[in-house]
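hey so i finally got around to running the thing on that chain from the lab meeting. sorry it took forever, my laptop kept dying and i had to restart like 3 times. anyway pasting the input first so we r on the same page abt which one it is
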Amino acid sequence: MNAIDTLIAAIQEKQSPIVMGLDPTLENIPTFLKEASISKYGDTIKASVDSIWNFNQRLIEVLHPYIPCIKLQMACYELFGSEGMEVLEKTVKLAKQYKLSVIADGKRNDIGSSAALYAKAYLGERPLITGKPIKSDVDFLTVNPLLGSDSLTPFIEEAKKNGKGIFVLVRTSNPSATEYQEAKLGDSFLYEKIAQDLQQYAKDLQGESGYSLVGAVVGATWKEEQKKLRETMPNVFFLVPGYGAQGAKAKDILPSFDAQGGGAIINASRSIMYAYQNKIYNPTLESSRFAQAALAAVKDMLSDIETLRQ
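ok and heres what got predicted. didnt touch it at all, straight out
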C-alpha cells in the first residue's frame, strides 16, 4: 500500500475525512503555555518554540482518535530557524506514534538536482557519511507544478520508491488564484491543464484503492471548479483546504468527494486550533480548555460533513 491507500484506510476506520492543520502562530498560542515556557527559558526563541510544541502535543494527544492526518505548514516552523524545525520534527514523530499520516505543506519545487534533494529530504532518505540513511517520517509533501514536468518527476520517483505521496497545487483556495490559474492555454485554463496531466500520471501510479500517489490540492472556496476537477481526475485524491476560517462550509466541499463519498480529505486549521477563542466551543473563553474546544470543533465538522455526504 502506498501512503494514499494507508490514509484512505484510516479515513474509513475513523469515519473521518479531516486533516488537522497545525499551523500555529505565536500570538494565538494560549497565554498560559507561553508563560510556562518563559518561566523555563526566558523570553527567547527557545521559549517560543517550546510553547508551540506543548500546544501541538496536547492537540494531537486529544484529537488523534478523531482524525487520520495532520498537515504542518512549514512556514510556521521555519520562522523560528533551526529550533522551529526541531519542533516540526518532534511533531511529526509524535503524530507517527499515534499512527497519523503527516503532510508537510511546503509547496516545494526546483529544477534538476535541487528538486531531487527536496524530494529526498521529505519523501526519501537523509544520507549519513558512512551509516545507513535515515528515512523521513513525512508521508506527503505539497508540490508546486509551475516549473514543469521534469521538476515533478523527482518527487514522483521518490514517492513511488518509498511508498509516499505528493499533493500537487491545482486550484488553490486564495482569492487571487484566478490571476494565474485561469490563464488560458488554448481551450483550457492553466489549472485544468495541470489537472489533465495529473490524471495521466495517475493511470500508472494507482494503489490498491484506485487512487494515485499523486494527489491534488483543490480549494474548498471554488465549488464549481471542484465538480469539474473531480470529473477530470477520477483517480486523483484531493486535499481540500479552505474549510472554516477561509469561509467554506461543508456544503461547499461536497463536489470533491467521489460517488462513494471518498476521494478527498478536508483540511481545517485555524477553526480547529483556535476553537478555544470561539464562544460556541468555549463559552468562558478559558485558554486552558484549548484542546477540549478543538475536539468539539472537530466533532461539529464531522457531523456537518457526514450529514451532507449521507
